[in-house]
Amino acid sequence: GISDSPFADDFVSTPAQDQLQKQVVLPMEQEVDMRSLRERDEQLRELE
């Protein structure tokens, strides 16, 4: 079966691929977090 293939592990995910994906995804998430935090600050200032 496919699971017997030596390529199966590489296809599912190798540690290197996981690290690369995390490095790509994290900055995006951080940008979104910063954006949402700024918007929240602006809303709080408007309320005051």
Tags for this model:
48 residues; mainly alpha; 2 helices; 0% strand
Secondary-structure blueprint of this entry?
Layout: H1 8-12, H2 15-47
Q: Tell me, briefly, the overall form.
A: rod-shaped
Helix-strand string: HH
Largest sheet: none
Cα radius of gyration in angstroms: 20 Å
How many β-strand runs?
0
Oligomer status? single chain
Descriptive account of the structure:
This protein is mainly alpha-helical. It has a domain of 33 residues. Helix content is 79%, strand content 0%. It has two helices and no strands. The chain is rod-shaped and about 65 Å long. The model has no long low-confidence stretch (mean pLDDT 74).
Concise structural overview:
This protein is mainly α and 48 residues long. It has 2 helices and no strands. The N and C termini lie far apart (64 Å).
